[in-house]
Amino acid sequence: MLTGLPGAEGRFFAWYFHDILAGGMILALVNLLLSAGRLPPLTRVLPAAAFLLLCGLFWEYVSPLLISGSVSDPLDLLAYLAGGLAVLPLLRLTKAQRRP
To answer: Where are the transmembrane segments (predicted)?
Structure first.
């Protein structure tokens, strides 16, 4: 299991890796919902980053107020952004392939 790694690698996989994956998943899911509603997807950096930042702010600072035992970590915001922005080129590629 990756979280059993010692040192900095273990801490990275235990604390931030799932947040990086979540950022990519959030952006992919919102684009799926937007395309289902026949709306343009988030494929530009600034709108995608703003959306991920708002999601991260809610998840890290509002949900701890609603869920007992939940804590916030500002570095998670960077992990959400990193994951979402890493997926962005793939989303752009699929958008370009769908054009006639």
So the answer is: 12-33, 45-62, 77-94
Element (H, E) at 79: helix 74-98
Look up residue 71 and give its DSSP letter: -
User: Whole-angstrom Cα distance, residue 16 to residue 26?
Assistant: 15
3 or 73, higher pLDDT: 73
Instruction: Report whether 82 contacts 88 (CB < 8 A).
Output: no
Q: How far, in Å, CA of 91 to CA of 24, rounded?
A: 10
pLDDT tens, position by position, 7-56: 788 888 888 899 999 999 999 999 999 989 999 989 899 999 999 999 99
First to last CA, the chain: 44
40: its two tokens: 């343009």
Yes or no: say if 26 and 85 are a contact pair by the CB < 8 Å rule.
no
What pTM, to 2 d.p., does this model score?
A: 0.81
